[in-house]
Write a structure and sequence with these properties.
The complex is a heterodimer of chains A (about 70) and B (about 325). With about 70 residues, chain A is an all-alpha fold. Chain A has a single domain, classed as ACP-like (Non-ribosomal Peptide Synthetase Peptidyl Carrier Protein, Chain A). Chain A has helices at about 5-15, 30-45, 50-55, 60-70. In chain A, α1 (about 5-15) packs across α2 (about 30-45) and α1 (about 5-15) packs across α4 (about 60-70). The longest helix of chain A has 15 residues, at about 30-45. Chain B has about 325 residues and is of the alpha/beta class. Chain B has one domain: Peroxisomal Thiolase, Chain A, domain 1 (3-Layer(aba) Sandwich), CATH 3.40.47.10. In chain B, β4 (about 70-80), α3 (about 90-95) and β5 (about 105-110) form a beta-alpha-beta unit. In chain B, α6 (about 210-230) packs parallel to α7 (about 245-255). Chain B starts with a strand and ends with a strand. Classes of the chains: A mainly alpha (about 70), B alpha/beta (about 325). At the A-B interface, α2 and α3 of A face α1, α6 and α7 of B.
């Protein structure tokens, strides 16, 4: 799992071509996006993310940190 | 882990309301529709209830199987949309179906895991000596879902099912069951002001993220335990018939437990998430496939409770009727 791979998953989740670490999630980060992101991380890396952490994420960097935690 | 010998699922029938809605008529959010995988759902009319759908399915099944009504020793109604808070709906159904009076009749208050839990209860009664048990599992979530809540309003559909469980030598059903009540608020309808939850509403409320995570944590291990206990490996399983929670969840589970998604039978696209009816509905919807490969069918229910259960059974020679509409 690399930062670029996670950024690609985030971009796919919110249906944009690309994102960088500074992306502020704001309105795009609804419950559907959270579920799609958790599902993608699980499908690609077999990891189950803490839903509260993903829910509380403010930026793409937060999601990278949560996803790469304990690796 | 429980294995019940000498029991068989002899027949299954399902009835859905004839009225249906297309989700594309309700929202322009195609991402949501493709994620949950629900294109259309059947919705009960104002005066059509879970009991009505189950009774139609049961009546048809009894006639098609030419079952002597006196041989039905128990009727179990599994639902979270019963006819009344009291009495038990099974008591009413005994009279509607003109079943005998010396019969066991009661309700089970379970949802997504209700069918597989109900199969255990019915099988246990048959094992204890009853000739045959009528298991009715159904739900009309449309009665308890907030039309303005897109996460649940586009997901749920209505359906009622009937299953006959009978004695049969050299036939068995294996079960694995579990529960974690610490997640009881994840899916809840709490309209009682005396209770101390944060989900006061006249409608069903669901924390989809919590339920999704619960499923990823619990169900892969549940499937591993089921296969181990049944002395099967995943390649032995002909079909996985899982509760139709949502399409994304089913695909994620398939990958997590490493079973080809082709083995997962699906009905959610045409009927939505019908709670305790979703497993028998998926069986009836895919009856032509199952008839060709009826052995080693893995059923799994999981959700509200939080509760989960699996059943491994053959459906060889099981009467599986086409889905009815009423």
């Amino acid at each position: 799992m690399t930062k670029d791979e996670i950024l690609k998953i985030i971009a796919n989740t919110i249906e944009v071509d690309s994102v960088d670490e500074s992306l502020e999630l704001n309105d795009v980060w609804d419950s559907l996006a959270i579920i799609i992101f958790i599902a993608a991380i699980n499908q690609d890396y077999g990891k189950i993310l803490d839903p509260q952490g993903v829910f509380s994420a403010k930026t793409a960097k937060d999601l990278i940190d949560i996803s790469m935690q304990d690796l | 882990m429980i294995k019940i010998e000498g029991v068989k699922i002899s027949g299954i029938a399902v009835c859905v309301p004839k009225n249906f809605v297309n989700n594309e008529d309700l929202t322009e959010n195609k991402k949501l529709i493709s994620s949950i995988g629900v294109k259309q759902r059947h919705i009960a009319s104002e005066n059509q209830h879970t009991m009505d759908l189950c009774v139609i399915a049961a009546d048809k099944l009894i006639k098609e199987m030419d079952i002597e009504k006196n041989s039905i020793d128990a009727v179990i109604f599994v639902s979270q949309t019963p006819e009344y808070q009291l009495p038990a709906t099974a008591c009413i159904i005994q009279d509607i179906l003109k079943l005998k009076n010396d019969i066991v009749a009661y309700d089970v208050n379970l949802g997504c895991s209700g069918y597989t839990h109900g199969l255990l209860l019915a099988s246990s009664l048959v094992k204890s000596g009853l000739v045959s048990v009528l298991l009715l599992a159904g739900e009309t979530p449309s009665k308890i879902v907030d039309e303005n809540d897109s996460s649940s309003n586009l997901l749920f559909g209505d359906a009622g099912s009937a299953t006959i469980i009978t004695q049969k030598v050299d036939s068995n059903i294996s079960f694995v069951l579990g529960n974690d009540g610490s997640g009881f608020e994840s899916i809840i309808l709490d309209n009682d002001n005396n209770k101390k939850t944060n989900n006061k509403s006249n409608f069903l409320t669901m924390n989809g993220v919590e339920v999704f995570t619960f499923t990823l944590k619990r169900i892969p291990q549940l499937i591993k335990d089921t296969l181990t206990y049944s002395k099967l490996n995943k390649d032995d399983i002909n079909y996985c018939i899982f509760h139709q929670a949502n399409l994304l969840m089913l695909k994620t589970l398939a990958k997590s437990i490493d079973i080809n998604f082709d083995k997962f039978l699906i009905s959610i696209d045409k009927y939505g998430n019908t709670s305790s009816a979703s497993i028998p509905l998926t069986i009836c919807h895919n009856r032509e496939k199952i008839v060709k490969n009826p052995e080693k069918i893995l059923m799994a229910g999981f959700g509200v409770g939080l509760s989960w259960s699996t059943a491994v059974s053959d459906l060889k020679d099981t009467v599986i009727l086409p889905i009815m509409e009423a």
